[in-house]
Amino acid sequence: MSIEHPPAKMRDSGHPRMALWLLVLGAVLLGGWGAWRTFAPQPGNARERIVEQQARIEALEQEVATLSRSDQISRQANADLQGTLAERDEEIAGLRADIAFYERFVGATGQRHGLGVHELKLSAQRDPQLWHFVATLTQNLNRGAVNRGRLTLSVEASDGGRMRRLDWGTLRQQQAAPGVEYSFKYFQQVEGDIVLPPGVKPVRVIARLVPAAGAPLEQGFTWGEATAAGPAP
Fold it and tell me: What predicted TM-score, i.e. pTM, was given to this entire model?
C-alpha cells in the first residue's frame, strides 16, 4: 500500500502565507505609528514655550542672586548699626560719668576739695622712651576763685638695680624746662610729653603743683596706675 504525498507546490505554500501575514502586520504597525505621530496631541508653540521657560529660569536665578546680595548687604548694615549703637552707648556712658564728675565739684552739695590732681594718665608713644601725660586738676574749695600755677612731673625708677628720681628737667631733656601752666576755677586737663632715659624701669610718678599763691603740693601715683587704660573724667 503506497502513501501519497502532496505535491511540492502545496507543501511550500505555507511559507509565502506567513511572509504575507508578517508584511501585512508590519504595514499595519507602521501605519499606526504614523497615524499616532500625525494625530496625537502636540503642545502648541513648543519652541516658544521652551524659550519662555528658559527665560523664566534665568529671571528666577537673577532674583535669587539679587536677594542673596540684598541679604548680605542687610547683614553688613545691621552689623554696622550694632557697632554704631555700641559706640553711642559708650559715648553716653562717658557723658554721664562727666556729668557726675562735674556735679561733684560744681553742685551745691558736692564735697569740698582743695587743689589737687584728680587723675594722671600716661600713654606710650611710638618711641619706647616717649610718654604722653594728661593730668586732671581739680578744686572746689574756693568757689569762683581762679587757680593759677605750674605742673611738673618726676619719676622714681630703678636704674641698674638702684633707685633714682628723674626730675622734670631730665624728663623734658631740658634742665631749665618750665612747668606746664594751669589756670582754672573748678577743673582743667593739662598735658605734655616726657622722655625716659634708656634702660630705666619706672616705678612711681610724682605730680607737683606749684600755685601762684600758696605752698607747693605733691601727689604720687604708681606707674601701673598712671599707665592703666581708663575713661577720662
Answer: 0.56
